[in-house]
Amino acid sequence: MQFGIFTVGDVTTDPTTGRTPTEHERIKNTVAIALKAEEVGLDVFATGEHHNPPFVPSSPTTLLGHIAARTENLILSTSTTLITTNDPVKIAEDYATLQHLADGRVDLMMGRGNTGPVYPWFGQDIRQGIPLAIEHYALLHKLWREDVVDWEGKFRSALQGFTSTPRPLDDVPPFVWHGSIRSPEIAEQAAYYGDGFFANHIFWPKQHTEKMVRLYRQRYAHYGHGTPEQAIVGLGGQVFMRKNSQDAVRDFRPYFDNAPVYGHGPSLEEFSRETPLTVGSPQEVIERTLSFRDYVGDYQRQLFLVDHAGLPLKTVLEQLDILGEEVVPVLRKEFANLRPAGVPDSAPLHPAVLKTLTEKES
């Protein structure tokens, strides 16, 4: 099973000090966080894509290309790539290039994003969000699998005899996840192509996530890709840890209470009860994460959000130490022991990555 972290790249004032990092600091700190993720033995680092303040990751391939040059094992991903407002031709070219630079250590997550104004900024209509996601991905899927493409659709100019360059490394396209918080159409899209489905899993109660994953699994089997249990599922999660839960709650509360995303609403206790947010000891995080399996089944990737809401870099790096030393090793063992035979233990990796892992193990 793959464990890692994802970032939304927010530039948020630290409510305990009143200090706001510069964009330069936030970008550099994001690189430091990714390098720390590899150092502590995590599998995946994923970055979001935003084109508005207070976020900085407007160019995921630039960021991930830099991280690729400074890491050896880390799988580089997105959370998410905006399939609606990016040109699928440019996505095909950019991420194939990144795949070459990273020697195959790349997959990506497609999504519609959660910022409405981004649509007109890139010449699109938010009311066409779902049709855009469907059509754009159909073209991207084709561009990575056919050397010469003839194509005509509704939302961009037609292509005649077009070849996307560079071609995917070894003619193996990056593995794709389709990320969603609320849209069953995206679960259906993931199932149709036999791709992975990533349930964001950080704002909604478990009953909602359970329904979305169940739909994806059922439709995955319907399209003949395998059994429902063999469908490739990923989950998000939010954690904050201290040695004991009282310290974790005390230290995290000011960040939660003032966070732009969920501050000034339900209390920390209410939000933790109704969503997968876990603020407590490492053991509490282990137990809560293992409980996700009870309602989504065996799954392949778990990504944690740890660097949001103005948390300082020092604190984030401490969280990664705890994840790498105390939490993830236990989760790896427990999930492996629970996983039935015939159920994939991780998302598909590029053959070059598999070869490297095999050589290191031998």
Automatic annotation (TrEMBL):
Pfam family, any one: Bac_luciferase
Name assigned to this protein: LLM class flavin-dependent oxidoreductase
Classification via SUPFAM superfamilies: Bacterial luciferase-like
The Luciferase-like domain, residue ranges: 1-294
Alphabetical keyword list: Monooxygenase, Oxidoreductase
Keyword Oxidoreductase set for record: yes
Residue stretches spanning the membrane: none
Signal peptide feature range: none
Record organism: Streptomyces zaomyceticus
Domain of life: Bacteria
